[in-house]
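A note from the maintainers: we've had questions about how concatenated examples are separated. There is no special marker in the raw files; a new sequence line simply starts the next protein. For clarity in this README we add a label.
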Amino acid sequence: MVEADSGPKRPRDRALRVRSVVVAAAAALALASCGAVMPGGGGSTGDGSQPTSASPAAAGKTVKVVFIGVDLDEVKKQTKLVTASVGDPKKQVEALEKWVNDNGGLGGRKLDAVFRMYDAQTDSPASEEKLCNQVAQDDKAFAVVLTGQYQSNARPCYAQRKTLMLDASLVSNDEALFEELAPYLWSPSFPEYNAFTASYIKALSQEKFFEGRKKVAIVAADTPVNRRTVGKKAVPQLKKLGIDAEVGWVDTTDIGTIYQGSEQAAITFASAGIDRVMFLGGSRLASIFATIAGSKQFKATYAISSFDNPSFFLNNPDTVPADTMNGMVGIGFHPPQDVADSEMPFPGEGVEKECLDIYEAAGITFETREAARVALPYCDSVRMLKLGADGVDGPLTAESWSKAVDAEGSNFQTASGFGNALGDGGHAAAGSYRVMRFADDCRCFVYEGDDVPFSE
């Protein structure tokens, strides 16, 4: 663990700290609207027990599914944070419900879609436990579509209550968590975290991010999933490349602990003379750390990925030092938050266009791909839900649905990214990535090369 800075604070440092806290809080909360990127949490169901295997069948001829949205309008008003509006998610859910029911329902069953808005300003483990109980016990939902739920207790809570999860958050769920919470946890839009991490480091090496260095800094969320991934995957892989890792673990309980951990890490990295930094654990860490690093006169070149929400840096140039993005390189798997429409024409062909057509039939359009960053994962979730339900012959349970998805998963394609990794035991749909870097000429992020399958 990185030690805290106990030295005296000069007036200018205190002013920078206050400004950074405000900016960091705004960034952290705003990013929740597009699937706040924090690891999915731990290795138990909260009370130490494991999810029971027998889940209840969907009642009668109707399947109730709750879609979670995140309310950040007030935060945006207060902070003046810039981010593309995601439109009216409730109407988007209604459009998806109509499309499903007009096209055979869920294996002949009617979809009853319920929308719940979650206030990110009140986020806490207790708030997410309350939301979980509302969905599972009050709504009696068969499934829930998650966006922006990033506390460690959230996913185990739904699994313990036998509620199927279509996780539409940019959350770092690894295979161990998928297996532990099986058959309840699935990701229709994003990659499995171990595969991502292996590919991330491999791509950085190929792009010579580590060239001439014997040590690299990792800013890492201190959660069970991330501890497991960093310790068992990232650090050993870096060692094979001849690189030691200085890990700055950051407590992600709240904005205060994230700020403190990031500040401590920046001081430690600067003292060690490290000038290459990568992030494992989420976009809140990247935006907050970069802000703090500037105030501590820490200069480094950063690795970047979709988990770090590149669009935040482009939309809010006053939040972090102007040169923060120079030299950024990494991998991207989520175009709505990676690259501008000028770099990847919008709308695209294939499943992205199919999803946008569903919304357009209901009178819903999106000016940019970034504006569809919630709508597209919602669509992925509904399409995956329908794929599984249509393949069930008999009672629809989480177990029977999961078996059908495993059997038919190779036919699925995410509208939010590249490739496919479902079927044959896979729980996360995104199967490929592209090399991504910040380009000086356009001052934007760009993709380079072809799709690359995520490593095993």
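[label: protein 2]
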Amino acid sequence: MTATEEPTASDGAPAQPLTIAQLAELAGVSTATVSKVVNGRSEVAPETRAAIERLIREHGYRRQRRRVSSAPLIELVFHALEGDYPIEIIKGVERVAREHHLAVVVSELQHRHVPGRGWIEDVLGRRPTGVIAVFSSLTHEQRDQLTTRDIPLVMLDPSGDPGHRVPSVGASNWSGGLWATRHLLELGHRRIGIITGPDYALSSRARLDGYRAALDTAGVPVDPGLICQGDFLAEGGLAQAHRLLRLPDPPTAIFTCNDGEAMGVYRAAYDLGLRIPDELSVIGFDDLPPMRWTIPPLTTIRQPLTEMAVAAATMLMTLARGEPLAQNRVELGTELVVRGSTAPPAR
């Protein structure tokens, strides 16, 4: 075999991943250019970068014997930095990062759920110990780029299906939806509205399925007119609550699929002169710290966000040490927290 021939196994597949020099030979570029792509440097033409990344995906990349050290950083990526949800996540990741003497780099996707162009190059350039993506997804190409550089990835509260190969942490959303609706049924409510999250969010779909299961078990027909699609924002909760409460036969209770939407329902009740819980019961989902200070304090389903973040960061550190995970999917339990916003319906 000559120096320019590609090493192959008997079945035609590459016998082993290729070095930077071999990748450069195949791509017809310099080793410096391949090195820039491997390390996330920006000064490479997009077409050349795409060709080199394709070769890395097809053949693999053989690192030098002396492994390039990772930076003492955890890359924490949010689809949006709004409200108290990201604060609870950051607290959990910081707890684990401090134990391992790491810093946390926080970035925002500005409500996109897949990072745009330039994000992966920035991450590869920083060479963090690992990446935690929160309520977002990565493209297959972006995942492959992290894998080929030995940068582990964990998905936290993923918006879509991460697949069984990608480590992820979530909560028991279906059970939470079931318990929220069952609580209202046990109080005597039968006209129960729900404001979901966006349709692409699997967590929202699971909470809606739990709502439907609770009604079905209780023998209460599901009224499609009481199901509103929200967006996990207070503004969406306000708009959908106005629609529900102006129905000829309005609901006596509303279950929102996050606490932010519940605040929108509170505002709608105020606008329409309805007293909570005397004339309308409201239950949320998340149990963010401010919810105990609303008037009245919000009944909600506790999603252990900080504990979920601790679990994700702990999994990340295990992967960074080159150790296998006990399981690729971790699901933490949710629980009902009863406060002052729910009561039996007015007679």
